Structures are given as C-alpha cells and as structure tokens.
Amino acid sequence: MPTDILFEPIKFRSLEVKNRVWRSNVSGRFDNYDGSGNQARINWEVKFAKGGAGAILSSFVPVLMRGRIMPGYATIDRDDTIPFWRELGKRVHEHDCKFILQLSHGGRQRDIQGIEWDKGLSSTDKPDPLHGFECERMTKGQIQEAVEAFGEGARRARDAGLDGVELHGANGYLITQFLSSAINDRTDEYGGSLENRARFVLEVVRAIRRKVGDDFHLQMKISTTELCNAMTREPRGNTIKDSVEVCKWLQQAGVDAIHCSTGGYFAHPRNPAGDLPIEEFVKAYDSMVSSGAKTYRNYRLLRGKLTGRLFRQRWLKERGDVIEGLNLADSHAVKKAVSIPVLCTGGFQTASVIRKAIDAGQCDGVTIARSLIANPNLVELFRQGLDRAPKPCSYCNRCLVQVVENPLGCYDAARFDSREEMVREIMSVYQPSAFQ
Ligand SMILES: Cc1cc2nc3c(=O)[nH]c(=O)nc-3n(C[C@H](O)[C@H](O)[C@H](O)COP(=O)(O)O)c2cc1C
Ligand code: SF4
Fold first, then answer.
1. CA 160 to ligand 2 centroid distance, Å
2. What is the average pLDDT across 6-32?
3. Distance of alpha carbon 122 from its chain centroid, rounded?
4. What was the pLDDT predicted at 1?
5. 392 C-alpha to center of ligand 2: Å?
C-alpha cells in the first residue's frame, strides 16, 4: 500500500515532526492573572497530543506584559515561567507530539486590558480600527526592548525543552503592525517601504538566532493577504506579492518555516472563516463595552436587530463561499518562492482535501484550530481511514466569541446529544485538577 502523505514525517532544519496535521494556535483564559500557567492549560494541550496531532502550536504567549491581549493567558516574559512551560512540554512529549511556542506581542490590538498599563505600544499612534483601543507610537528604545523580549522569550522556550518557537507575525498583532502598509505610518527606518516595514521582524529573527543559535526551530506565522478593509475603513494592506518578498527575507535571516494565515486584524471574516453568532457575540462583547472608543458603538450596532443582521451579512460576504483551504492559493505562492517548508491554516477538516493540497505542492502540512476543538482526535480518525469526523465542525465560531468570558471549547450545542453533554466536555479541561 502506498504511504499516506498525511502521516509522512515533515523535516525542518533542526526538527522532525511525525505527521503533516498539526494543532493550530488557540488561546483560552486557562491561566492566572499574572501570566503564570495552570494545570488546565496542560490538560487542554494534552487532549490534542493524545488525539494524534504531530505538533501543537501554542496559544498567543506574550513576551512582555504590555504585549498581552487578555489577562489569563500564560506568558513567557520572565524566567520564573520556565518551569511551567517545561512541565507542559514534557506532558505533550509523552504522546510523541512536539510543542512549539508562539512568541507574541499584541501591540495596539487586544481584547481585555490588564490593570498594569493603559495604552498599547505600536508602530503607529492610530487606535485599532475595530474597537478603538488607543496606543502610543513606539520609540526606538521601545522597539529595541521588544526585539530583545522576543529573543529572551525564545531563549526561555529553549531552556524549557520545547521544540521550537513561532513568531506571531499575523492577524494584526505587533509584528503585523510593523509589516502592514495599512497600519504602519512611520517616517523613520521602520516605516515606508516594504523593506523598512520588515526591519522590525528581521531584527527579531536575528535577536532570536543570537540567543538560541541556528539549531532551534523558528517559524513565522504571517497574514499573507491582509484585507484590512474587510470590515473597516482602513486601506487594504499587504498583498500576497508583498508577503512573498517578506517570506524570502525571513528565510535568508534564518527562519525555518512559514505558517500562512490571513487577515490584518483578529477576528477577521476570513480568519477564523465562518459564521458570526450575533447573540453570543453581543453577550461576550458586553465585557468590552467601556474599554475602547468604538466598543459602545459596536455593542449597540450588534444588538440592534437590523444593524446586527446587516453586520453579519457583510461579514459573510467578506468571508466568501470557500472555507476549507481558503489560504491555499497564498501558501502555494509562498511555497514557490522559498525552499523552507510551508504550513497552511484555514478551515481544514477533510483528509482528502489536505492530501490533495500537499500532493499538489500547495503546502507541506496543515494546521487546524476549530475542527480539532470540535474533534480533538481528528488526526487519529484520519489514521483509521475516515475522511471526516462523524460530527464535523460547523464553523459556527461560537468557540471564538465565547472565549472572551468562558472556557475554551466547542459551543455548538447541535453537535452534542444535550446541552449537559456539551458543558461536560467543555469543563473536562479542569480534570485532573492541580490538587489531585
Ligand atoms: C478560539 C480561537 C483562538 C485562537 N487563538 C489564536 C492564537 O492565539 N494565535 C494565533 O495565531 N491564532 C489563533 N487563532 C487562529 C487559529 O490558529 C487558526 O489559524 C484559525 O482559526 C484558522 O484555522 P481553523 O479554520 O482550523 O480554525 C485562534 C482561533 C480560534 C478559533
Ligand atoms: S463552536 Fe464548535 S462547531 Fe462551532 S466553530 Fe467552534 S469548534 Fe467548530
């Protein structure tokens, strides 16, 4: 029998992973206010390791407290976080699964701010266009501090025995805020031309290489097409042509793989591509009502019957009809331009679709977020020969909007026999507790 490409190992410069289907980054408020990690996060990640994913890409892990987007996410901003990450890595490794930590900084984009600071730091001083969160334009000293923090984050991840790091250079967070022609309005050497806008991330890559050497896996998640104008009045932002250039520079600077995503902010109609469950969204959004200049306006807009419906219609129009593999054309373009492996995220949940994409040279592997939240054993089901899970992810995006206030999990009640079963499954992440 010919071997199944999904289960062929994928080789990077200094890392080998057993298969081509990985868990994509998913954030949830499992941890403590101060950024120290909890048993619930370990339980959460182990679910996917047990389910057969080749590697797990962590949630958004802030490299500085001022770079966080929500309290309750484990951070990697100081050395005393290392033991937690070491334990998490060890528990994931028990299931022959790799763990790659996503080094992140939110810049001007966030969900709920903590008590330690008021304004975010960014390439610009324009507030974020979705919620109106204010920010300060970074000074060169602050830029250097952030570059150093990314390097130190990578050093801590290596010291914790993890398998590599990913730069969160996608979806509107700080690295995107420098890369993006829609967001970056600087007039110094960090703004203007594409080369100048890429200076920040390339300095980050070099700082990481200085700290961890050449034999520690480093990949970059990038929004290859930004479409910042999808729901806002911002310009369109970077195109695939711009991103292909950036990916070539990233490879030259020492990046080992590219992870293709989309959308110049988060959430975006095309990331995670799906529905907009307005009622749940309104409920979750009330916790943000007074935090940004536009949040109260948005809340009223979403709550209004007609305006809420119109907003959702626009969201669906901007999303388009194709969900599964919607970034494949972009990852294909990147793959043709670089010689390092390329991963693609966006809607995957059918074995034959993934196989076809890899066989066609559109990517070397895929990463999955929601369909694994819905079916954490999806990769094992593929291994058993199923093309899809019996109860697939509906792309309803309830998991996404619930996460602001509630534990991460699948909230599509139609996928469960009862509401009680759904809640039981969501709460299972708290077992075992830290005290058992
Ligand atoms: C609840 C939720 C949390 C997410 N958190 C992150 C994150 O922390 N970092 C990140 O890069 N992407 C994050 N994403 C995006 C996913 O990693 C993924 O790229 C995107 O959802 C598309 O994949 P999918 O269609 O398989 O869900 C998140 C998505 C969801 C639904
Ligand atoms: S709530 Fe469940 S079904 Fe809906 S998008 Fe999330 S994981 Fe998929």
1. 32
2. 97
3. 19
4. 59
5. 9
The token pair that represents 3 in the structure block: 């071997």
Question: pLDDT of 266-292, one tens digit each?
Answer: 999 999 999 999 999 998 888 888 888
Cis peptide before 267 (omega within 30 of 0): yes
Q: Note whether 159 and 251 are within 8 A (CB).
A: no
- Report residue 212 as tokens: 């961890």
- As given in the structure block, the two tokens for residue 176 are 């995107």
pLDDT bucket at 15, cuts 50 / 70 / 90: very high
pLDDT at position 204, please?
Answer: 98
Q: Which amino acid is at 299?
A: Y
Compute the Cα dihedral for 210, 212, 216, 218 and give only its sign. negative
Of 73, 173, 265, 285, the active-site residue reads 173
Count of C-beta atoms within a 10 Å radius of residue 117: 12
Q: Is residue 249 pLDDT above 90, yes or no?
A: yes
Per-residue pLDDT, 284: 86
Tell me whether residue 321 is exposed, middle or buried, using C-beta atoms within 10 angstroms of its C-beta: 0 to 12, 13 to 18, 19 or more: exposed
Q: Is 61 helix (H, G, I), strand (E, B) or coil?
A: strand
Structural domains of the chain, with CATH: 5-430 (3.20.20.70)
Residues with beta carbon inside 6 Å of ligand 1?
24-27, 59-60, 102, 168, 170-171, 221, 261, 271-272, 345-348, 368-371, 399-400, 403, 408
Nearest CA to ligand 1 atom 29: 26
Q: What is the pLDDT of residue 180?
A: 98
Distance 9 CA to ligand 1 centre (A): 24
Q: Say how far apart CA 206 and CA 221 lie, in whole Å.
A: 16
Residue carrying the six token digits 């089901």? 381
- Cβ < 6 A, ligand 2 pocket: 274, 370, 373-374, 393-399, 410-412, 415
CA torsion sign for 13, 369, 181, 317 is positive
- Select from 21, 22, 23, 27 the residue to mutate for testing ligand 1; criterion: most ligand atoms less than 8 Å from CB: 27
Distance 124 CA to ligand 2 centre (A): 34
The reply to whether 299 belongs to the active site is no
Supply the mean pLDDT for the chain. 96
Tokens coding 410: 């699948």
